[in-house]
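User: Before I run my own analysis I want an independent prediction to cross-check against. Here's the chain; please return only the structure tokens and, at the end, one sentence I can use as a sanity check.
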Amino acid sequence: MNVKLKLISVGNSVGAIFPRELLSALKIDRGDTLIVTQSPDGYRLTPYDPDVEKQVEAGREVMREYRDTLRALAK
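Assistant: Structure tokens:
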């Protein structure tokens, strides 16, 4: 999918207008945060946050390690 984004003035900043199809494809809506990362072929715009992934993986590790304790607490 190739989409052109129009840049507009928003106060002293610049914003972009995202077509509905792109919002739907990215599964984002007004107020969501997008992450911009540099890649070898340019820049990548994504709702995926690598820091959140690290936190989720740390939580999964704790749940694996303390599975029996968490199960007992859930009773």
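Sanity check: The radius of gyration is 19 Å.
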